Amino acid sequence: MARKKSLKGLGARYGIKIRKEYTKIHFQLKEKRPCPECGSAKFGRVAVGIWECRKCGFKVAGTAYGVKV
Questions:
Q1: Of 14, 17, 29, 65, which one is least surrounded by beta carbons within 10 A?
Q2: Based on C-alpha coordinates, what's the Rg of the chain?
Q3: pLDDT 10s digits, 46-68
Q4: Is residue 12 annotated as involved in ligand binding?
């Protein structure tokens, strides 16, 4: 069984529950998403709540950690 990659930087601090939640949100932010306009996989977060396609320039406001288009 393969282990999920853990994040470095938190070490043994803050407790396991917070580290697991941090890891879950971090991987959710970094996953590749298709652009709703052009379909390319270059759709990502620019700032909190602002998502943009790096190919076509399409911008949309969404939630802080994900976008529902």
A1: 17
A2: 15
A3: 999 999 999 999 999 988 888 87
A4: no
